Amino acid sequence: MTTYKNIRSRAEVNVKTLNKIFAPLTFEERIQLLYRYFRQEDVLYTSSFGTKSVFLLHLISRIRPSQKVHFINTGFNFPQTLAYKEELTELFGLQVEDIIPDPTQHQFSIDEKAWKTAPDLCCAINKVAALDPIKEKHKVWISGLMAYQTNYRSELEIFEEQDGIIKFHPLIDIDEGEFLYHLSYYGLPKHPLEAFGYGSIGCTHCTVKGKGREGRWKGKTKTECGLHPSRLSA
How many CB atoms lie within 10 A of CB 229? Predict the structure, then answer.
C-alpha cells in the first residue's frame, strides 16, 4: 500500500486509485485509512457547524480526536450557529480554530452590502480568501459534502483534485435516510434553527427557511459559496 512515508509529492497520490480503494469502505474505515496516506498535520478539516455537520464531527471526534477543526467565522453567522458550535465543541471535545476574513475587506463587504449586490464577491472575501492561507499548508481537505444534497454534489467522488489540494468526501455516497438514521441512533443534537424550518444554514443575509438547500441564496442562481467550486480537475 502506498502511504505518506513513500509519497514524495502530492502529484504521486493517484486520485483514481484512492477512489477505488476507499469506495467499498464504511465511513469510519475511510476516515481511519486516510491517516495512513497523509500525516495529520497535512489534513485540513473544515466545518460550518450547520444542519448537516454534526455526523462528520462526531465521527472525527471518535476516530481522530486530535484533528483540528477549522471554522470560518464570516462575521455574518447566526447566533444560533455560534452557540451550536460551542455546544458540539464541548460535547465532542473538539479542537476548533476560528478563521476570520481580512478586517478591511470584511468592512468593505458590509459597507457595500455585497451579499445583496455581489454575493459571489461577498463569499470570496469572507470565506474563500480567509481560508486560502490555511489550505496552502495542507495536502488533503476533509469535507462533509453529500451527493443527495445538490446536483453538483451528486457528481462528486470520494476524492477530487481541486485547486491544488485533494478534497476528501467520506460521506459523499450516504443517502438522506441513512444520514438521519445515524443522527437518531447516536442521539446527536440538531442545529437549533432546524426546528424553525431551516434545512441548510449559512450567513444570515443569504439564508431563509426552506427544505434542503433551497433556502440558500434564494432567488439567485448561486448554489455554492465558492469553497466547493463546480469546476474540478481530476
Answer: 12
165-168 and 140-142 strand pairing: parallel
CATH code (residue 22): 3.40.50.620
Confidence (pTM): 0.85
In contact, 46 and 57? CB cutoff 8 Å: no
**Domain-located, residue 46:** yes
Dump pLDDT digits (tens) for 132-141: 999 999 999 9
**In whole angstroms, what is the distance from residue 175 CA to residue 127 CA?**
27
Compute the distance between CA of residue 186 and CA of residue 182 in angstroms, rounded to an integer.
Answer: 6
Annotated active-site positions, please?
225
DSSP letter, residue 198? B
Residue 190 lies in a domain: yes
User: Considering its fold, how many domains does the chain have in total?
Assistant: 1
